[in-house]
Amino acid sequence: MQPILFTVGNFRIYSWGLMLALAVILAIIGISRLFAQEDYDRDMVLDLVMLCVVFGIIGARLAYIITYEWQILLSDPLMLLNIKDGISGMAWYGGLIGGIIPFIIYLRRKNLSFWKVADIFAPYLALGYALVRIGCFLNGCCYGNITDSAYGVVFPAVDAYHRYPTQLYSSALNFLLFIGLIRFYPRRKFPGQVFLLYVIGYSVYRFIVEFFRSNEIFFGPFSIGQVCTLLLLLLAFLAYYWKKPRI
C-alpha cells in the first residue's frame, strides 16, 4: 500500500486525493467535449463537476458518520470534512444523494433537462469511480474479506491476513462500464437511457462485489451496501420502464 505517494517539505501528496484529482480532470475534459457536441455551454461543466464532487464528498462523509460513527459528528463536526487520509470513512449512498441534489438544482435553474445532461455525465461517473478505487487500493481502505485465494492481498495497516482486493475488482468493472457507456452514448434511444444503464450496471456490480468486501452492518444475509443497491436497482428499472418510448 502507498497512502502517501511522496512528500515535498511539509506537503504530502496522497494517493487517493491524486486519483480523485485525475478523475475530476478527465471528467471535465470528456464532458466538455460532449457538451460541445450537444451544443451546451461548456462553461457549465466545471460548475457541475465541482458541485457534484464537493457535495458528494460531504454527503458520503455525513452518511458514513451517521451510520457508523455518529458520536464523532457530535464531538468534532469538522471531522465531516477530513478527507486528507483518503476515502476511509465515506458511504457511497451518501455521496450519491449529496452529489445529485445540487446537480438537479443547478440544471433546473439553467432550464436544462436532467436526463439529457445525466446521460453525458454517466460514462465519466464510471471512469471517475474506477480511478478513485485505484486510490482506495493504494490507500489500503475498502478492502475485502479474508481469503485463501492466490489473488489475496495483505493490507498491513489492517492485519496480516490475505484479503480480496475488492478495490481492484471495482476499478476493473467500472472501466468496462465506462467503455460500454461511452460507446453506447451515440446510439441512445431516449433521454436518460445512458444514465439509467449506468445505475443498473453499477447496482449489479456493487451487489456482487459486496459479497467479497469486508462489511460491518448486515440485514439478514445482505450488507447495508447490498440493501441500498437493491433499492437503487429497483428504482432504476422502474425509471427505465417509465422513460422507454412505447411503440
Strand content: 5-15%
Instruction: Please report the distance between the alpha carbons of the first and last residues.
Output: 53 Å
Helix coverage percent: 55-70%
The low-confidence parts are none
Taken together, the total number of domains comes to 1
Structural class: mainly alpha
Mean pLDDT rating: 89
Radius of gyration: 19 Å
Arrangement of strands in the largest sheet: 1-2
The total of beta strands comes to 6
The global form is globular
**Which series of helices and strands comes N to C?**
EEHHHHHEEHHEEH
Largest sheet: 2 strands, antiparallel
Number of helices: 8
Structure description:
The chain is built from eight helices and six strands. It is globular and about 55 Å long. The relative contact order is 0.12. The chain has one domain. A two-stranded antiparallel ribbon has the order 1-2. α2 packs antiparallel against α4 (92-109), α5 (114-139) packs antiparallel against α6 and α5 runs parallel beside α7. The longest helix is centred in the N-terminal third of the chain and has 26 residues, at 43-68. Helices cover 63% and strands 7% of the residues.
Layout of secondary structure:
Blueprint: E1 4-8, E2 11-14, H1 15-37, H2 43-68, H3 70-75, H4 92-109, H5 114-139, E3 153-154, E4 162-163, H6 166-184, H7 193-209, E5 218-219, E6 222-223, H8 224-243
Antiparallel strand pairs: 1-2, 3-4, 5-6
Helix pairs in contact: 1-2, 1-5, 2-4, 5-6, 5-7, 6-7, 7-8
